[in-house]
């Protein structure tokens, strides 16, 4: 029986027994077509493939530059295909049983330097101070300055930031009470720059008669407040004006900058965990590359037996 026939039987099973959608079946077919093409080149067939064959296929994916996540998905399809052939009696064994999935490297978050964040804030504030700006343009610029100052001061999730109540700009406290995931409340600090940016923005809104509704960032959207997409779009424009690559700047990247810059300056990891609203410290430990670098430099500079070279 040909490999194509084996693949068709497997796809028929997915459709009939598991109710797989057309998109799912198309994805499996693409993965299996790639695998069968490899088997043809290797001069073998699905019912005679060995674990060495499977490892060779995975190596070919790596040579082609496939990401670990994509390679793992392709192996999953091949694994299910061979299990089907074995269980249904089309093959004497399942060669994938002894093959482990490629390791997925943990992706480090993109982080902006302090200077880059300063440039973003400077451009945002310059836009707000532009004397030639129309009232709508000035409000939009003040809103961006407020968003950036608040985000960098607090490390809020984007969903938390855009849904802040108007009372956040009026607080006399040096912190905000934020309701995050799972309706858990936490305290986040407010810098004087963030408080001033919020007050200036709200004053401009009220002056234009636009401070209506409960939101600090009202917008003509289904939710009634600024959307994540609109904020991300406006932020990319500011990034470009600041001379930064817009594909490297997003609201989430600024949350990462908040955490990384705190750790660089000596903050405790558990404090950062609390500020970010992470339920588990393992989530926060993605930032330990920052701590690692600081500790390396500390040992290099301060250890009595270190040559100072590293």
What does this structure look like?
The protein has 310 residues and is mostly helical. It has helices at 3-17, 22-42, 51-63, 68-87, 114-129, 135-154, 158-162, 192-207, 228-241, 251-264, 269-276, 281-284, 288-302; strands at residues 175-179, 185-189. 29% of the residues are buried. It is elongated and about 75 Å long. Helices cover 58% and strands 3% of the residues.
Top keywords for this entry?
310 residues; mainly alpha; two-stranded antiparallel ribbon; 13 helices
SSE layout and pairing:
Elements lengths: L2 H15 L4 H21 L8 H13 L4 H20 L26 H16 L5 H20 L3 H5 L12 E5 L5 E5 L2 H16 L20 H14 L9 H14 L4 H8 L4 H4 L3 H15 L8
Helix pairs in contact: 1-2, 2-4, 5-6, 6-8, 6-10
What string, H for helix and E for strand, traces the elements in order?
HHHHHHHEEHHHHHH
Helix content class: 55-70%
Strand elements, count: 2
Rg, please? 27 Å
- Globally, the shape reads elongated
**Proportion of residues in β-strands:** under 5%
Q: Provide a count of the helices.
A: 13
Weakly predicted, low-confidence segments:
none
Category by helix and strand content: mainly alpha
The average pLDDT score comes to: 84
Sketch the major β-sheet: 2 strands, antiparallel
Provide the spatial order of strands within the biggest beta sheet: 1-2
Q: Between the first and last Cα atoms, what is the distance in angstroms?
A: 61 Å
């Amino acid at each position: 029986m040909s490999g194509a026939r084996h693949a068709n039987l497997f796809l028929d099973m997915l459709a009939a027994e598991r109710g797989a959608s057309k998109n799912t079946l198309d994805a499996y077919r693409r993965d299996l077509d790639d695998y069968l093409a490899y088997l043809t080149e290797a001069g073998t067939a699905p019912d005679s493939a060995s674990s060495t064959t499977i490892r060779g296929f995975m190596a070919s994916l790596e040579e082609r530059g496939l990401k670990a996540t994509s390679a793992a998905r392709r192996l999953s399809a091949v694994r299910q295909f061979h299990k089907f052939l074995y269980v249904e009696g089309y093959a004497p064994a399942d060669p994938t049983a002894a093959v482990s999935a490629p390791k997925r490297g943990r992706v480090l978050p993109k982080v902006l330097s302090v200077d880059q964040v300063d440039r973003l804030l400077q451009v945002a504030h310059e836009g707000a101070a532009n004397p030639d700006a129309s009232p709508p343009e000035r409000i939009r610029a003040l809103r961006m300055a407020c968003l950036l100052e608040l985000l960098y001061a607090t490390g809020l999730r984007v969903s938390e930031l855009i849904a802040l109540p108007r009372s956040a700009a009026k607080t006399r406290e040096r912190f905000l009470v934020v309701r995050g995931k799972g309706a858990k409340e936490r305290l986040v600090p407010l810098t004087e720059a963030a408080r001033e940016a919020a007050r200036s923005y709200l004053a401009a809104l009220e002056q234009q008669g636009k401070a209506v509704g409960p939101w600090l960032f009202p917008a003509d959207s289904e939710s009634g407040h600024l959307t994540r997409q609109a904020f991300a779009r406006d932020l990319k424009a500011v990034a470009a004006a600041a001379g930064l690559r817009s594909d490297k700047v997003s609201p989430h990247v600024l949350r990462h900058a908040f955490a990384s810059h705190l750790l660089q300056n000596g903050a405790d990891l558990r404090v950062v965990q609390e500020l970010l609203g992470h339920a588990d410290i393992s989530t926060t430990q993605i930032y330990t590359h920052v701590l690692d670098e600081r500790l390396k430099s500390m040992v290099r500079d301060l250890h009595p037996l270190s040559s100072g070279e590293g």
